[in-house]
Design brief:
EC 6.3.2.3; alpha+beta; 11 helices; four-stranded parallel beta sheet; D-amino Acid Aminotransferase, Chain A, domain 1; metal-binding; ATP binding; metal ion binding; single chain; six-stranded antiparallel beta sheet; ATP_grasp_subdomain_1; Rossmann fold; globular
Length: about 350
Amino acid sequence: MRIAFFVNAIESETSYYTTTSLAIAAIARGHEVCYATPGDFVLRPDDSLAVRVTTPGAGKPKSADTFIADLNEKANLKTIDIREIDVLFLRNDPSLDADERPWAAHVGAMFGRLAVERGVLTVNDPDALAKAQNKLYFQDFPKVIRPSTLISKSLDEIRAFIDSQKRGVILKPLQGSGGRHVFKIKSSKESNLNQIFEAVSDEGYLIAQGYLPDAVEGDVRLFVMNGRPLEKDGCYAAFRRVPAKGDIRSNISAAGTAATVKVTPKILEVAEIVRPKLVADGMFLVGLDIVGDRILEINVFTPGGLQNLEKLNGVDFSSSVIESLESKVKIRQIYGSQLPNAVLATL
């Protein structure tokens, strides 16, 4: 099986990324992996779709650091027909390209659709990813698992919403990731609200969410695969993201730390509520960020933290993800194009 990981840029990949763990797990299971980036697709006059892929050096890597070094220094570049790929795994973050390379932000979903039309299993399903380019996608899920939310570019609307929330609000860009430009606002009368509004609104619409008191301990990142919590050897793929002292952001990329967490019936109930839509949308692997009985965010593009989980719990979750892809490829070989990509993605 050949798996192509679609990422923002080869040079920005790191040893601690979840994509790296998945790639190493695939190689360990005897598969070939390669990487593609937004500028690598070619749609030719005969309507064939080609892609230039970067393949790491031959052999099983000794470590994640070795793998990344080989990917950057010893990689082979070649252009192949998209049909030579069994799985196209879309793992790019559109928000990282939104400012400097806006043309690149939606390439994964665009060419992912073309790959699907040519028989390539593509996860997560590109049609659903096209609808999830920003946090508006989250608003399609049941209200019972969402905090009170306002989306607007009007400072007056935002002030009024803040006044309606006794515990304050979290204000952030509608399209963003990694904890960038995330602020806690306690009162609409805060002296720096205008400056915060200007800083965040430069990136487009703002999303304001009622603050959840339990967030002071961070949030729980729960991986969901095929619509159900990822579990192996009796251990759930979940960890608590603890914010740094004096910071409201629990993102690991924003100095948050990972800690073990007990997955409670309440957490499982929240996951069960979102399961039907995740399955219907063909969302193969996602990360739910949960506080209490609410979800703050659903990461459908680049859910990260598998390496943290594997170190904390000594469980190889990455292999379970690859094993699931193996099963889907076998089903595709039997059924051909009879099963839509979105259906196959979450079987």
